[in-house]
Write a structure and sequence with these properties.
The chain has 177 residues and is mostly helical. It is 64% helix and 7% strand. The chain is built from four helices and three strands, in the order ααβββαα. Strands 1-3-2 form a three-stranded antiparallel β-sheet, with no helix packed on it. A hairpin with a 2-residue loop joins strand 2 and strand 3. The radius of gyration is 35 Å and the shape is rod-shaped. The mean pLDDT is 81. Keywords: Membrane, Ribonucleoprotein, Ribosomal protein, Transmembrane, Transmembrane helix. InterPro entries: Ribosomal_uS2 (IPR001865), Ribosomal_uS2_bac/mit/plastid (IPR005706), Ribosomal_uS2_CS (IPR018130), Ribosomal_uS2_flav_dom_sf (IPR023591). Belongs to the universal ribosomal protein uS2 family. One of its GO terms (cellular component) is mitochondrial small ribosomal subunit.
Length: 177
């Protein structure tokens, strides 16, 4: 059994994280309403890449309206993959040609880092709690064993006392007869 903090434990945690569809809880980070309120659905006006066509809900006043129902699961998948990369010590570089998007990149990086830190802290807390529980169980087991030994000694002393009393009564009764 590996101890917390060892390479085996870290590797087991990394493997376990891949077994979960949403290990970092990114599905609770944003909803359709959050994306809508953040005006994510408003795309750019003018030229767009042909590969964007399936994700365009429509156009209004020359501005593309992005289909958020398709965007949300893909955003969650991208955040999950980014979280796994960072969780394993990898680095992610966000690039943009638009200066006004820098704050969005900072927000994504901060969110991913916070999620990874929260998961690591939770893993450490769970391991610490398990260690404390094991110690408490072992201590209780020791107390039970000591109590059983004390009870056995008390019973043996009582048996000896009863035996001495019976022998004494027998001697007294035989002496009077």
């Amino acid at each position: 059994m590996s101890r917390p903090g060892t390479a085996d434990t870290r590797e087991a945690t990394l493997v376990a994280s891949l077994q979960h569809e949403d290990y970092f809880g990114v599905k609770e980070m944003a909803s359709l309403r959050d994306l809508f309120n953040a005006r994510v659905h408003l795309g750019n006006s003018g030229l767009r890449h042909l590969s964007m066509s399936p994700y365009i809900f429509g156009t209004r006043q020359g501005c593309d309206i992005i289909d958020l129902e398709q965007t949300l699961p893909l955003l969650q998948q991208a955040l999950n993959i980014t979280g796994h990369i960072v969780y394993r010590g990898g680095m992610v570089l966000f690039l943009s040609r638009q200066m006004q998007c820098w704050y969005l990149m900072v927000v994504v990086v901060v969110v991913v880092v916070v999620v990874v830190v929260v998961v690591v802290v939770l893993v450490v807390v769970v391991v610490a709690v398990i260690a404390v529980v094991v110690k408490v169980i072992l201590l209780l087991l020791l107390v039970v064993v000591v109590a059983v030994v004390v009870v056995m000694i008390v019973v043996m002393v009582l048996v000896i006392v009863v035996t001495v009393v019976v022998v004494a009564i027998t001697v007294v009764v035989q002496y009077h007869l």
